[in-house]
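Before going further, learn to read the protein records used in this course. Taken together, the tokens spell out the fold as the letters spell out the chain. A record is reproduced here so that you can trace the correspondence yourselves:

***
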Amino acid sequence: MPEAPPQHGMSVVVPVKGRVSLMRAQLVSLRIAMDHSPEPSEVIVVDDSELSDAALHQANCHEFGARYVRGSRHVGAKRNLGVERAAYDLVLFTDSDCRVPPDLIARHISTLRGADASVGGVAGPTFVEQRQSPANRVMRWSKLINDDLERPQRCATVTWATTTNLAVRREVFMEVGGFPSESLDHVGGEDCDLGIKISDAGYKIVCDAGAVAVHDQDIVGSLSSAGRRLYGYGRSEQWVCSVHPHHRRPALNAFTVATAAAVAGTALAARTRGRSLLAVPAALGVLVAARAHRLRGDGDSWADGAVERLACASVDLMFDLGGFTAAVELRRPSMLFTGLQAADGD
């Protein structure tokens, strides 16, 4: 007997591990958004937390009317499981460390219902919550953290979008094969992979600048946590490039430059009495200064926030380190000189 087609409505899929208090805050915001939805809606939480946290997630899901599902460690597999269990024909992806406004579900439903079949998804911007902390003041300059999240505010369409705030047609999601269930790491790159597959299949991902989600500031809660996240971003970008090589572009990786400088410096060390070994810190210093210069806003002078921008550019190097180690791990030396094309559309 053929499976019944999904009903009209929106299923919200949220993967989680730990983060009990953040997930509860997200459930509160999603409950309000569901109450404002013009169509039936549901929230599906897919969890692989330790048993103590899992019990708390289950209790919170029961309190706010969400469905609780146990899933695997890989975040792509979690989201795929959520879509498999979804009752409705539209699916919204968001994260456990985000919060949504009351009109978000309604806006995404309106956009997708009003679009023709060529539109496979709609992306809204996500803004990192701003709090006064040293790490937040430094990392607010980071384009590597903020640009992908905020891109739907300034674009009409994108090739891919972050799954902090992305709604898709379920039939399109199933057609392109959903998220990868295996990748270089258990988190990272799956949103790029899905968007590229949707775009390559001939569908558009349109943007709604007014459909805004908020990301908890713990994404930049400390410089070390920001660095770890950027390292993961760098690794996942190279994995996406390995899966979708036609979306690669030339890129200058700071650690590729530093390695070349180290090889050259070592070869010349005897001739220069070791002074050539200074090429490595010199190269990194030049790259940090150049990146800090590019982090300026329109109309800013070099002196405006110079110390914070230099610190941010230094932390941003963790993205390059992640990309460098992934290229070595994947045994793809050509990827030491390439990165992923930006997702910007029109």
